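Cross-posted from the bioinformatics board.
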Amino acid sequence: MQKQSVFHSPLLPFLLIAPQVGIVLVFFYWPALQAVWQSFLLQDAFGLSTTFVAFENYAELLQQPEYFNAIVRTFAFSALIAGSSLSFALLLAVMADKPLRGVGLYRTLLIWPYAVAPAVAGVLWMFMLHPSLGVLARGLRNMGLDWNPLLNGNHAVILVVLAAAWKQISYNFLFFLAGLQSIPKSVLEAAAIDGAGPMRRFWTVTFPLLTPTIFFLIVVNIVYAFFDTFGIIDAMTGGGPAKSTETLVYKVYLDGLLGGNLGSSAAQSVLLMVIVIGLTAIQFRYVERKVTY
Amino acid sequence: MVERQGIRGLVAHLILWVGIAVVAFPVYLAFVASTQDAASIANGQMSLLPGGHFLETYTRTIFVGTSGSTREPVGVMLFNSLVMALVIALGKIAISILSAYAIVYFRFPFRMWIFWMIFITLMLPVEVRIYPTYKIAADLNMLDSYAGLTLPLIASATATLLFRQFFMTVPDELLEASRIDGAGPLRFFWDTLLPLSRTNIAALFVILFIYGWNQYLWPLLITTRDDMQTIVIGIRKMITTSDALTEWPMVMATAVLAMLPPVLVVIVMQRLFVHGLVETEK
């Protein structure tokens, strides 16, 4: 993939590319390499001496049940967030894909939460479901439920998942709608002529043709749940109660900042990098293949 | 589509309105809370209709700030967020369009190496390399500065890839034509390529502005001084651990103010926003 006719100049292209290469080297490669290097080092408690310990940080990390729990927890979060947000968004997109009056308005009214910062989304939901002053919490209490996300781990998880899924609805909705609109109407009409009702048409024609979009969105939502939930968690629960909402990224943050355990934090960063690269690779593989059944 | 809509259409309208209500309710509640007095919220006796403290709360939030926790008026935070979002959006666009131009329209040694070097940055968000990046920013004396707040977030390849993709679709004839007219590479870039890229630049700007405005983890680490806080960080610090001291109307007013600029951008520039979102995710 390259242009047939190009300019020739010995110096100019390097000048043009210098700012980006400079920034990428200083703020991307240097820190990334440092993370890798630091993950092989062990610092004593006072930060006075460092020794090279090879893979000891990794070994220690992988033996910790705590770290294993964080991995499981993060994937569980991803599944819950992606599952709830995707299904709700798909329902809305299918409805908005119908020839209704005012569809443009519906679309506008559904996409703006994309612009809400995750941390702000966290504050909004915390406020609604705050055990002592939340409006919805009051309702739950009246129904006889002892709702308290500040003390009950499961409630805290539900709270984080709700806020995270809420914020992601608009994104998923937009891509589902685009996917639905690209399905040729003739296929659906053919199915209708064969006597398939709306439900059947959806499950046998629309849904299979939508699989590339669904697959793409699953990967995006998992990455979102991994990283962008940081703000939500920090604003709502701070990883608590009793680590019930401590995801991998949040653990990197806590172990490096409060724990001061930089070697372990760096090793966690590197493992996270590996997970993200794996996810991205899956995504690219799919983009190449464009699977539809 | 095939059957007449009738009752089914009604159901669709209904579901969409329920969706809109679910999406809008938390924000409505924040607005309502920001117009009521602190005592009734703290008692859990908040009304679901707007109260009469709108002007009072918002002027106090913007010009004075919460007394206990952040010590800075939210106006200052809004300014910091605006600077950060603008510098990230414009900076990223500027450096990316130049490097994409070099990669597509020139042949030079290590061209593909450099392309891949930039491409790889796509994979790792700043969260993953947070402490080493922090250390480097500290070594470069960038803590509590706009440079430190923005430069590390500019280091990514999304925009470069987008511009590269777009330049590949620009017909070669344009280059030939301007070459016959005697235009050099800079002139061609300025007079031909840049005007053609207008829509892409605008769409990218919308996406990057929102991205910059909503940053959380990085500003949380890099800013220690109160007057360098962004609004998204400030809001978090207003919620004190002992609930009794949290001034909820002001927290909610800050939340509303923090949402307003990016949400307005999305609604006013909806077409560009959708275009940008679809393009950057490809």
